[in-house]
Amino acid sequence: MRKTNASGRVRRGKNGEAIAEAIRFGPLEYWVGFNLRMAQEHAFQAFSRRSQEIGESPGRFATLTLIARNPGISQTELSHANGRDKSSLTPVVEDLVRRGLVERKRMRAGRGLVERKRMRADRRTYRLNVTAAGKQALTMLTRCARQHERVLDRIIGQRDRKRFLQILKKIAAEVE
Amino acid sequence: MRKTNASGRVRRGKNGEAIAEAIRFGPLEYWVGFNLRMAQEHAFQAFSRRSQEIGESPGRFATLTLIARNPGISQTELSHANGRDKSSLTPVVEDLVRRGLVERKRMRAGRGLVERKRMRADRRTYRLNVTAAGKQALTMLTRCARQHERVLDRIIGQRDRKRFLQILKKIAAEVE
DNA sequence: TATTGTTATACTCTATAACTATA
DNA sequence: TATAGTTATAGAGTATAACAATA
């Protein structure tokens, strides 16, 4: 069997010989939007493979990081922080708790250490924190992410990295 | 009610006053992978809104463009071109055909115009082409995309655009 | 045996709306 | 009335495996 490259086509000539043709991408080729998508997709897949070796998904990693960096965050706050509806977060948090990576506590009434005043106790909200096991998972994931970043850095080049990052942030902040 | 920014938290002070706190993103803040994802997500959403006003999704747009630029492409070739499994393409093509944007023909046996030899007829494959209606839809979508590109260009700046695009292509090509 | 495209099926991620329990 | 979180449900997009027709 004859091989072609990944996005190649094989056309048969009039004598039945194989002719490899490249796929034409037309205007997509020059558009930032399309190439942004392609780059993200490839980078995401690469990191996905890496982090799945230690049994986590990139989404879980981001969630875990946000909880670790914002101890006691509520689920609604967390859903805002990563731009998803709160209902989408329910099964994620459930899973992290079930696996012992995150701890979920109801806000409880109590007394402040200094003042004798009763502290508020909103019994609708949960406070989220990472457990020791969660911290450990996070350490491994962070190591993964740093390796991945090194690969990306090598591709981008030290000279352009800073500016590239700035532009990515600018797009996220300003587009529409 | 007091407002906070999109990713803000509200903590209550000891006197019950609202204290707005920013979410901390920790190392995510400085990682290319995370910011690449954020930028792509925002840009994609923006284009999605735009193209949905004319009843298409970004995915349909890419598929339609690939067919238009590669007339007679087969479904398997098409699935390679956008990096998805062929089975994922079946409902997409089905939908485009149903709505009259794409035409699907079996390869049929026939005679070449010049040679008298019988031409090959692989009756397993379909050849895909865009119809007149498909071309019309594509024209509108392309207009949309160009508007979207102008927004992105304005954010990126003329000076950095070329280099930015190069880096995106490099990431897609080289990562893992 | 290998390939093209379909089908059956399932999984992930996401959203909306209705609900509960609080506030 | 309003808010925090859950549940029920649905949709988009994807994949794997088995299959029929054809090569």
Order of helices and strands of chain A: EEHHHHEEEEHH
Q: What structural class should be given to the helix and strand makeup of chain A? A: alpha+beta
Please compute the radius of gyration of chain A using only Cα atoms: 24 Å
Biggest pleated sheet of chain A: 2 strands, antiparallel
Largest interface: A-B, 73 and 74 residues
Average per-residue pLDDT of chain A, rounded, comes to 87
Instruction: List low-confidence stretches of chain A.
Output: 1-7, 111-117
Rounded to the nearest angstrom, the distance between the terminal CA atoms of chain A is 49 Å
Extended strand count of chain A:
6
Oligomer: homodimer
Q: Level of helix content of chain A? A: 40-55%
Proportion of residues in β-strands of chain A: 5-15%
Number of helices of chain A: 6
Spatial order of strands in the largest sheet of chain A:
1-2
Q: What is the 3D form of chain A?
A: elongated
Give an overview in words.
Two copies of one chain form a homodimer. In chain A, strand 1 and strand 2 (18-22) form a beta hairpin. In chain A, helix 1 (32-52) crosses helix 5 and helix 3 crosses helix 4 (86-98). The first copy, chain A, has helices spanning 32-52, 58-69, 75-81, 86-98, 132-156, 158-174, and strands spanning 8-12, 18-22, 102-106, 110-111, 118-119, 126-130. A two-stranded antiparallel ribbon of chain A has the order 1-2. Chain A is an alpha+beta fold. Chain A has six helices and six strands, in the order ββααααββββαα. Chains A and B meet through strand 1, helix 1, helix 2, helix 3 and helix 5 of A and strand 1, helix 1, helix 2, helix 3 and helix 5 of B. The structure holds a DNA duplex (23 and 23 nucleotides).
